[in-house]
Design a protein that fits this description.
The chain has one domain: Rossmann fold (3-Layer(aba) Sandwich). The protein is built from 7 helices and 9 strands. The chain is 28% helix and 17% strand. The strands form 2 sheets. The protein has a 6-stranded parallel sheet. The protein has a 3-stranded antiparallel sheet with strand order 4-7-6. The chain starts with 8 loop residues before the first strand and ends in a 12-residue tail after the last helix. Pathway: Carbohydrate degradation; pentose phosphate pathway; D-ribulose 5-phosphate from D-glucose 6-phosphate (oxidative stage): step 2/3.
Length: 256
């Protein structure tokens, strides 16, 4: 019998700084639970504004950086120092400011940028090394996946109406036709995202109002963000009042 998909929990903070603070508490709680249980904390990060929103973890003593294993929810097929690289962005906003061991961070293999199938296969193999022998599940079970929401409701590199929304077998898939540049990318698929123990979305600012309302109030539209419904875990949204202005969806009080 399959577990019912998780219903999103919505946390609304006064402003972006409060979102940063709440997100840091949430990540620390997830880390503590994972490290106590397994001695490691597996995380998948996105790009966009997300790495900057993790600034609440910088300088915090209770972060066990040596226990983190960091992957990417999606990545652009560009060199790691390219302005479009999610890894490059995370390096700039987070890794360069915290004592995380370099070997605990898992970027794409940039020698394979000209062959997206090889690139996505190699990233899938890196995940298999981390997860398969330990969790022996059909899909990896991340402790935490941190996501953003695009202006069209996309998340990772899963775009509205794209064939990858229907991918059911692969852990990592590639696309050459991203509607948002750069066109060539790899991405985690829904089976991986929806096997995570925790998924957290972060959205701030008035520019997110209409789309956030569509994603939470009209899940029947099937927007990519609305399809994130973990079957054995939880999904929550950390947003500010500006982003939540049009949302009718039930709010949950944030408790530290």
């Amino acid at each position: 019998m399959h577990a019912a998909p998780a219903k999103p929990t919505l946390y609304v903070m006064k402003n972006a700084d409060e979102v940063v603070s709440a997100l840091a508490s949430y990540v620390l709680h997830a880390q503590k639970e994972a490290v106590e249980k397994k001695g490691r904390f597996t995380v998948a990060l996105s790009g966009g504004s997300l790495p900057k929103m993790l600034r609440g973890l910088i300088g915090v003593e209770s972060v066990d950086w040596d226990k983190w294993q960091v992957y990417y929810a999606d990545e652009r097929a560009v060199p790691l120092d390219h302005p479009d690289s999610n890894h490059g962005l995370c390096e700039k906003e987070l890794y360069s400011k915290v004592p995380i061991p370099k070997e605990n961070i898992h970027p794409i293999d940039t020698t394979l940028l000209d062959d997206l199938e090889e690139l996505s296969d190699a990233y899938e193999k890196a995940l298999i090394l981390q997860f398969a022998s330990k969790d022996s599940a059909r899909f990896p079970i991340f402790d935490l996946i941190l996501l953003g929401m695009g202006p069209d409701g996309h998340t990772c590199s899963l775009f509205p109406g794209h064939e990858l929304l229907a991918e059911e077998d692969r852990w990592v898939a590639y696309l050459e036709d991203s509607p948002k540049p750069p066109p060539k990318r790899i991405t985690l698929t829904y089976p991986v995202i929806n096997h995570a123990l925790r998924v957290a979305f972060v959205a701030t600012g008035a520019g997110k109002q209409e789309m956030l309302s569509k994603v939470l109030d009209q899940p029947e539209l099937g927007l990519p963000c609305s399809r994130v419904r973990p079957t054995g875990g939880s999904v929550c949204w950390f947003v500010d009042e500006d982003a939540a202005a049009l949302v009718r969806y039930e709010r949950t009080e944030w408790e530290v």
